[in-house]
Amino acid sequence: MSTAGILRDAAFEAFARHGGRTAVAGGAEVLSYTELGRRIRDAAERLRGTLPAGPHVGFCLGNGPEYVVLYGATLAAAGLPLLLDASFNTGEIAAIRADCGLDALVLERSKAEAFDLPGKGEPLPFAGDVVVLPLAQSGAPTYRPRPDTEVCRFTSGTTGRPKCLEFSGHAVLSAARNWVEGTRMRAEDRTLCLAALSNGLAFNTSLLATFLAGGELHFFKGAPLTRPVARRIEEAGITRLVAFPTLYRNFVAPGGPARATLASLVYAISAGAPLWPDVREEFRSLYGLDVSDYYGIAETGPCTFERHAGHHRGLGEPLPGAEIRIAPDPDGADGEEGTGEVLVRTASMASGYLNHPGLFEQRVDAEGFYHSGDRGRLIDGRLHLVGRTQDHINVAGRKIDPTEVVAVVTALDGVEDAVAFPDEDLNREALVHLVVVAADGGLTKAVVADACRARLAPWKIPGRISFVREIPRTGIGKPRIAALREQLNARKEPAE
Amino acid sequence: MNEEEQAAAARRVRRLIYMAAGGKIQEEDLGNGETDLRTIGLDSLGYLNLLEGLERTFGVAIDLDQEEDHSFLHTIDNIVRYIGARSAQA
């Protein structure tokens, strides 16, 4: 149960301060700050009248004004919003429910009907086809959040149990304030956010930050194709576009939107995965605007931002409230001088993983720096990443723990060994490459792929599956990924 | 579209799917034109790339919000029929 109310107070203070200005626009719906505040109060009353005190409310919904209203209403009702990935499957939601407790889900009506969850109540209709689905708890959840936790978000966990990150109100407010200050966000800014609000990028750069500044937050419904996105930017006078590298790549592909359509943009922000240097260059050439790379970590919030036009390399300087250190590589390592693991300390750090006690703490050193697992260096105060020291796979901004994928496959009959590692497709998009050792020739790629589809969220499904006779391993059993890549490349197996 | 134009459109759609999926789906995996693309690994990013490719290759605007039924994107045959119908309207 949330007791601090820091976010509720900050939001309502902003609603009162900005009154009649436009706060949220999505499709045909436009809400002023006053109207948004009223809608949140009304929705909070309905939640109080329906759900237990201090409800845990899971959000399993795409972006839109109703998301903002019900998120605010959950805070206003002294509840705890848990921002789920909208593509989580029933198994993942059941695991979150058992671990963290879920008194209700916010989702589309069709999904509420399709989810096979015990204790489902009668859906409460809200605007459009959005409903709040009450869930009767059959017992106490395994874990209880810290008293100052006001929001939970998720990262991939092992064996289908997403890791629940707890954030205090102070941490979320600090992230928003530091983004406003560090990127000089103003009341005149109109942000079009194409990333899901469950993603740290969208959450920290768009939601509370926009309201503190008195700006406008615009949502986009439908597939983010460049043509309608450009039309929206032009029609609404969008000043900030928050998107992933793929969208920028599609903008610069032949036949993309005309330069004039993006004339109102002041910042084009890319995050989630490294932006390809040639795409950045081409975007500048075609649209006259630098794409600002941003570096943030789910566990720490926003870390860097490049605000100076003319700086074309690296991921920018630390934001206010963020400190970055590079842990030198051990003697004898073959990296460039000054390169090492990126350590981050911010005012917006998570408090911990609710359902994996002690795991977060293991990665924070005595001085409070989080060991990111990324490798990089600082050049003229700007962060440059060169790779990762860990095995997480980053697919379109979502970090996947390869052991989760491997656990699904090794449970299959006939699988002797398996390993998953990051790879790229022909479009240079990151994918999960799964390599399997089968006991006999009976196991096919289709069987493995079907098992993954049945057990994993869509974005965790391997984009490539290969079979080998043996996975090379070190003396202590660690897979030798570089040797395996060489083996696969030499075979020139057709991509699957 | 006549039969010849439909066959040419189908070949272009097959190529677009291969490119949209970043090579993860081979053209031979596509089978006949009735294979459900969702079952052979065309994910949301692949669909996004495919929609971009269809718009630019065939000069049609595809607004999913305006289409109640998205099954026109599920198979190659459906895509070709949709492109043919939209071209005829233009």
Structural account:
The complex is a heterodimer of chains A (496) and B (90). Chain A is of the alpha/beta class and 496 residues long. Chain A has 14 helices and 26 strands. Chain A has helices at 6-18, 33-50, 65-76, 90-100, 109-114, 169-182, 200-213, 226-236, 245-252, 277-287, 359-362, 402-410, 445-455, 481-491; strands spanning 22-26, 29-32, 56-59, 80-83, 104-108, 124-125, 130-134, 149-155, 163-168, 190-193, 216-219, 240-243, 267-270, 291-297, 301-305, 317-318, 322-328, 340-346, 352-353, 370-379, 382-388, 393-395, 398-400, 415-424, 430-438, 464-467. In chain A, strands 2-1-11-10-12-13-14-15-16 form a nine-stranded mixed β-sheet. The longest helix of chain A is centred in the first third of the chain and has 18 residues, at 33-50. Chain A is globular. Chain A starts with 5 loop residues before the first helix and ends in a 5-residue tail after the last helix. The mean pLDDT of chain A is 90. Chain B has one domain (3-89): ACP-like (Non-ribosomal Peptide Synthetase Peptidyl Carrier Protein, Chain A, Orthogonal Bundle). In chain B, helix 1 crosses helix 2 (44-58) and helix 1 crosses helix 3 (76-89). The two termini of chain B are 13 Å apart. Chain B has helices spanning 3-20, 44-58, 76-89. The mean pLDDT of chain B is 88. Chain B is mainly alpha-helical and 90 residues long. Chain A binds chain B through residues 221-228, 246, 250, 253-255, 396, 424-429, 431, 449, 458-459, 461, 463-464, 494-496, and chain B through 19, 21-24, 26, 41, 43-45, 47-49, 51-52, 55-56, 61-65.
